[in-house]
Amino acid sequence: MSYDENFLLKSIEIAEAGIGLTAPNPIVGAVIVDKSGTVLGEGFHAGLKHAEVLAMDAAIAKGHSLQGAILYCSLEPCNHYGKNPPCTEAIIAAGISEVFFALSDPNPLADGGSEKLLAAGIRVEGDLLQQEAAYSNRAWLTKIALGRPRITVKIAQTIDSKVAAADGRSKWITSDESRQHAKGIRDGFDAICVGTGTAVADDPTLRGATRNPRRFVIGERELSALALDEQEGYTHLRTHDLHEVVATLTGNGFNSVLIEGGPSLSSAFLREGLVDEIHLYMAPSIMGAGKSAVHIPEFTDFSQQLHYELSALSIVSGDIFATYIKEDYA
């Protein structure tokens, strides 16, 4: 059986348009082509209809027949009733003859998609681009594997790892372009957390570029009026128990959570082994005295280091932006 890898890569690319919109479900992209390789329809999951159905709807709206068509999916088609009926039933009913998917669905609730399609006489081949699809869907896969959202810590620091001056001032270490870049990154998260110290000292808005994640302020300190009150508001989690915090975030069905809460909150999550990814902005400056980005006093031995893999690196208006990950999402 042959397939066109470009269409499968396209389904993964399309899926990423749904990042931050699909929780508690995964991102999924779908491309339908005919036997000659002409694209009939495309679709991505954005929280309502599934990608496969949207791609079929797009093809039908253009007047195309799906009889004998080929479906490329970033994730194995589901085989269960949730908010939507099983995609397998729609695929079978449409007369699609071949299905290629990048990654098997690890969720036991959706199990059996390939088997059902095969039983209906449809040619199926899966796990064709596992690494690419897993990286793209790593937030949801982390949640399935670990039973909690994927947690990312964002740090904006100087070359010498300072996030604030000795007098507490931190506006602004990185460039305006980096701050705009960070807003775009926020769009892809379901929730964002800061500590009460950051909320009081910086009074952040925590806006995204096009949408705002759910906001949480963590800590027992009493809070007066904040800039967050003027937008969609926030939830104050009055605790220092991070496992209680994570249980609350998990209970909301989030796939991904961003921690922007300064060195105390970031260090606490790191110390508890709860950080799956780090987004690091580094400005080309040296502060000297000041507050360090991370402070974990319990780590006193070389062997206690936390290890992450460099995943991406870019320059944003003179600042370095690096993404570090733990590869335990698949």
Based on the model shown, name its key terms:
five-stranded mixed β-sheet, eight-stranded mixed β-sheet, elongated, 330 residues, 23% strand, 15 strands, alpha/beta
Your description of this structure?
With 330 residues, this protein is α/β, with parallel strands linked by helices. 28% of the residues lie in helices and 23% in strands. It contains ten helices and 15 strands. Strands 10-9-8-11-6-12-15-14 form an eight-stranded mixed β-sheet. Strands 2-1-3-4-5 form a five-stranded mixed β-sheet, sandwiched between helices. A two-stranded antiparallel sheet has the order 7-13. Helix 4 (113-119) links the parallel strand 4 and strand 5 (123-125). Helix 3 (87-94) packs parallel to helix 4. The chain is elongated. The relative contact order is 0.13. The mean pLDDT is 91.
Produce the secondary structure layout.
Layout: H1 5-15, E1 29-33, E2 39-44, H2 51-61, E3 70-73, H3 87-94, E4 98-101, H4 113-119, E5 123-125, H5 130-136, H6 138-146, E6 150-157, E7 162-165, H7 176-186, E8 191-195, H8 196-202, E9 214-218, E10 235-237, H9 242-251, E11 256-259, H10 262-271, E12 277-282, E13 290-292, E14 309-316, E15 319-325
Parallel strand pairs: 3-4, 4-5, 6-11, 6-12, 8-9, 8-11, 9-10
Antiparallel strand pairs: 1-2, 1-3, 7-13, 12-15, 14-15
Helix pairs in contact: 3-4
